Amino acid sequence: MANTEKTITVEQTGSTLRRPKDQRATLIGLGLNKMHRRSTLKDTPEVRGMINKVQHLVRVVEDNA
């Protein structure tokens, strides 16, 4: 059986300088810590919530079906 888990790739587009600690911690939780780094994650409600929290600092690169 093929792996049918959906994934989402995010790229950090904003700096963590002068950002609250919780936003920096959220980026680290997403696997991001420097500008233009990409991280591929499982597409879950928890990950979507984290992306929503720092939506001004990241962009979704691709959505695999």
Task: Walk me through this protein's architecture.
The chain has 65 residues and is of the alpha+beta class. The protein has one domain (7-63): Ribosomal Protein L30, Chain: A (2-Layer Sandwich). It is built from 2 helices and 3 strands. It has a 3-stranded antiparallel beta sheet with strand order 2-1-3, with no helix packed on it. It starts with 6 loop residues before the first strand and ends with a strand. The model has no long low-confidence stretch (mean pLDDT 92).
* Gyration radius, in Å: 12 Å
Assigned CATH class: Alpha Beta
CATH architecture classification name? 2-Layer Sandwich
Biggest sheet architecture: 3 strands, antiparallel
Count of structural domains: 1
Contiguous low-pLDDT stretches (5 residues minimum) are none
What is the helix content? 25-40%
CATH superfamily: Ribosomal protein L30/L7
How does the overall form come out from the CA principal axes?
globular
Q: How many DSSP helices?
A: 2
Family: Belongs to the universal ribosomal protein uL30 family.
Subunit structure: Part of the 50S ribosomal subunit.
Pfam families: Ribosomal_L30
InterPro entries: Ribo_uL30_ferredoxin-like_sf, Ribosomal_uL30_bac-type, Ribosomal_uL30_ferredoxin-like
